[in-house]
Amino acid sequence: MKETNHDKDCRKLTRQIKDNSESENKLAVHSHDKINSKEENTKNELIEKILHRNNLNEAFRRVKSNKGSAGVDGISTEELLKHLKENKDKILGQIRARKYKPKPVKRVQIPKSNGKKRNLGIPTTTDRVIQQAIAQILSSIYEKKFSENSYGFRPKRSAHDALKG
Fold first, then answer.
1. CA 88/CA 94 separation, integer angstroms
2. Which pLDDT tens digit goes with each residue over 38-86?
3. Mean per-residue pLDDT for 129-147?
């Protein structure tokens, strides 16, 4: 069977479409890798801000000033500094490697004014420092984005303030 010009054109067009498709796939993979790389860099920058010495020191100071009970590990706020000094490298390494797992929360019941009891969860003091360090950095980022008319769960604001305004 003799090949026609039409057959040749069809084969050529099919090859071009296939080549373009392969180029687009390579470009898409490259772009995806670039986006993932940027996201990873952003995550690492955020982790390093959270784990910065000044931020961790401020978080420790706030947890210590709040006092509070020991969690399931039994480490009080009075014993916390010694514990953190002894375990700092291990804890920071686990966080950087994204392997840190908070300890279970201690459950206690506290009395309410109506005679009933309310459940309360008490994280370990170490977990409280880490949570505080995270909250300090995230608050500094997101606080700027909130509306001036937003009052719920914001520093130095409350629902009562919203009613006054």
1. 10
2. 777 777 899 999 999 999 999 999 999 999 899 999 999 999 999 999 9
3. 88
**Distance from C-alpha of 41 to C-alpha of 59, rounded to nearest angstrom:** 24
Q: DSSP for 87-136?
A: HHHHHHHHHHTT---PPPPEEEEEE-TTS-EEEEEE--HHHHHHHHHHHH
Question: What's the pLDDT at 26?
Answer: 58
Region for residue 156 given its phi and psi (left: phi exceeds 0; alpha: psi -120 to 50; beta: otherwise): left
pTM of this prediction?
0.69
Burial category of 92 from C-beta neighbours within 10 Å (exposed 0-12, middle 13-18, buried 19 and up):
middle
Q: Are 81 and 60 in contact (CB under 8 A)?
A: yes
